[in-house]
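To close the chapter, one final illustration. This time we ask the reader to focus less on the individual chains and more on the assembly as a whole: which components sit near each other, and how the overall shape emerges from the parts.
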Amino acid sequence: MGRKNSFKTFAKEIPTNIFSGFVVSLIALPLGLGLALASGAPPISGIIAAVVGGIVTAILGGSNVTITGPGNGLVVVILAAITTLGNGDMQQGFLYTLAAIVVSGIIMIILGFLRLGSLGDFFPSSAIQGMLAAIGIGIFAKQVHVMLGNLNAKGSIIELMLGIPEGIKYYFTTDNQSVFYAGSVGIISFLIMVFYSKIRNRYFQLIPAPMWIVVLSVGMHYYYQYFSVALYPIEESLLIALPNDVMSNFAFPDFGKLLEFDFINAVIAITLIASIESLLSIKAVDKLDPLKRRSNVNKDIRALGLATVISGFLGGLNVVTVIARSSVNVNNKGTNRSANFFHAIFLVLFILLFATELRKIPLAALAAILVYTGYKLASPENIKKVFRIGKEQLIIFLITLITTISTSLITGILVGIISTFFIHVVINKDIMLFLRNLLKPNVLMFKEDDKYFVSIDNFSSFLNFTKLKSKLNQIPENEDVIIDFSLCDFVDHSVMENMNSYAETFKRKGGHLEIIGLDNYSTRSDHPFALRKNIPDFIKPKKGVLTKRQKSLQKIGTELNWNYLPLQEEKISELPTFGYFKTRQINKVSNIVSNDECSFFDVEFSEGEMIAKQVIRASMFYIKLDKEIPEFTLDREGFFEYIYHFAGFKDIEIDNHPDFSKRFYLSGKNQEKIKELFTDELIFFFESNPYHHIESSKQGLLILGKERLAGVKEIKALADFGIRLQKIISS
Amino acid sequence: MQIFKKILIGIAFSPNLKANLFEAIRISNMFSAKLVAVHVGNKTDEKKQKLQLLLNEAPNLNTPLNTIWQKGKPVNVILETCKNEGIDLLILGALQKENLYKYYVGSIARELTRKSPCSVLLLIKPSVIRVPCKHIVVNGLKDEKTKDTIKTAFKIGNQLDCKRITIVEEISQAELDIKVSDDISLRKATIEKAKIKKREDLRVENILSEIDCKETTLKIQSIFGRRGYSIGHYAKIKRADLLIMNAPKKMGFIDRIFPHDIEYILSELPTDLLIVK
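The assembled structure is written out below.
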């Protein structure tokens, strides 16, 4: 890969990135102003964050198509910080908060250097969902009032929520013209946000919804100015206030409270939310990247930290990676970080050229944008989604949500983590499983036969997910991976969800990631992300809940036009007649895909007895034959582990096929008949296909690959091998 | 290479005694070694009788059993006997965790393992009837003792009639000085890993060139991961019958608090374990 070449493509892609940056800036402008206002900060601070963020992360960042700027999540935290630090004086509070922002930026730089981007994994996903919903409700509760033209609503989130009916009543009954008009602009703006995606008009969709709101409200102002005899009906106080000289009036942070408890608290909250929001967004945006690149998370966090420090010193808010603006960037074919840079440049141009126009925007219009964002974060849809995964996830979600709303974000997320752990303990009825194994390494990864095999021991949950993640991140995504959870007693929802996103990434990049060993687990819902607990053999699994692997097997069955049975009550009666099972006790046969002649299935059997007993699960292929054939076993030469039950029989040499005799170990009682059976065609078949252990009873053939459960891809290969073998043998 | 000529077994009159004793006798016969049994406690007629009854049932020992009865602290007595008698191999029985099939080493056995002057064999599932040993996993990490350990493994494989040996090279993650953070570093790390693997394979093959291993199915597996842990996990999923490891250098107080190397395996035995001194 030449540097010149990559520069060429970079130069070639500049026009598309300029366009994409332009579209993003159309959204970033109203959002930046709105988010800053909602945070209780001067509107320009949001724009400063977006501009600084765009320039710094474009140069130093580690991701590709992300857009940075002020984030939704921080609204609640910043507002709380300004109020508590300022003791009622919003202006002074803002200066203290700027200092907190600078410090949190420094912490993020340190986190990035310590490669602690993985800290985000320690938050269970339902707790994070709950926290985001709480933030959504927080934004919603405050901004509904602003949207209706009432700037004076104050109180806790719950009080604000309860005040909404009162606010609506006030809007309809008020005799204050200004409030009524502002409220009307707000409501119309909200309707634009809601119905924007429903109007499928190409020209209408050229401008993003938030920009429509800006354009229309500015247009309304000009209407009153030039065409109408009436005066502009909305008071100055209900319009955006921008400093007269944007470029010179920067607020400077006040570090006066550096060591006070409230200040430290604010720093922690800001850092926590800024990193979580950024990490989630980076991860999500990577999945959208059309070029399938992997972001350097730690580098990005460092850049965001530096951007936050600079932004804080210039009087701007935190810089985080934001998902909504990033997806707009991807949709408009942004290909690299220059789009982020251009979005910043366009924002500067807007502010410099259109400052007068922007001052005409009613606050209510911006509030409407935020009300919609808040609603999206806390929408009932999200709650339904969580509930579908499992009741216990909903409990975690609600606990986190309610604690966050009624106390603070930090308390909320802590309570969420603790309650998740507590619920895991209750479900397993075992706390020692977690305590004893928490700090132990539990992941083994090795490469065998060009395939990566990952095995996880003890338990796998949000508590120790980083260990698994750090191994998985080392696998190139175009490889084959098998993840075996069969040694795990418990797998939680966060891990399942992450495994699913890994599987998607591998699929996108041409690899294959498959999970085995979960078929025996009990779940509480049929959602693929539901948590799973290993159940002892004597309890039968509930019917009707199929794992992803089982569903794939079912699909293979349908494709072949064969039957699929997840669980067989009676065992396949021919199995014990095979030599392989002479010393092994069959416990259970499951996941059977079969037609009249052939079947493949998972079989669970035990080796040894009493204390030496070991339970093993393996996938096999069985062929029923019409004619009688001699008993034999066929193996790779030197693969002694299978054949001790036929000890005493020598390797049978087939005449004229020295290569076959050298590579395969064939043994059996009736040498003559076996030699007869092994025709040239059959020998050629074995020689040209991968090794399997094959043995015959009188009327059947048993094929097995490895002594473990096979992944779906391996099952397909096994089935293909078996079907072709069956055709040759029976012909 | 270790040759085990004298084997010591500690006798506590527990339910496992029979199986432990039978295993020890079989192993002594296979190694053509002398067996010494030590009991820490009083020598009573009742105990003597019990032992004799078991010995009558057991397979014949090729060389007569030497029984030592001595009072004192179990750990001290056994360690002293090891020194005095010139023992090469100490056999200990492991305990099973209450639920599921997980085994761990009790406090006495753990202390013995740490302090023993000779090699130690920990049995997780002693059995009255012989369970054939089919698969031996041996460590191949970069250490001056490894050569000796691998040679011992082949010798034992020969004596136990085990035809399959896997040498596991545990490569510490720290040896890879590239941290994976994006596509480019991942590509570099993958190449670097392949290089390290090749180097390690070559080192092991060098050792193997001195050993006759035509008869065995041999496999060299490299694993990037925590030393001492990965090999145990590997032995577990490959269902090895015997795991052979180097004796750790020296273990201090800190190693017990922050377990590493062999401590991981002792806390949850995956298979029978032989620690070669």
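The domain at 435-545 of chain A is CATH 3.30.750.24 (Transcription Regulator spoIIAA). Confidence is low (pLDDT under 50) at residues 536-542, 640-647 of chain A. With these observations in hand, you are ready for the problems at the end of the chapter.
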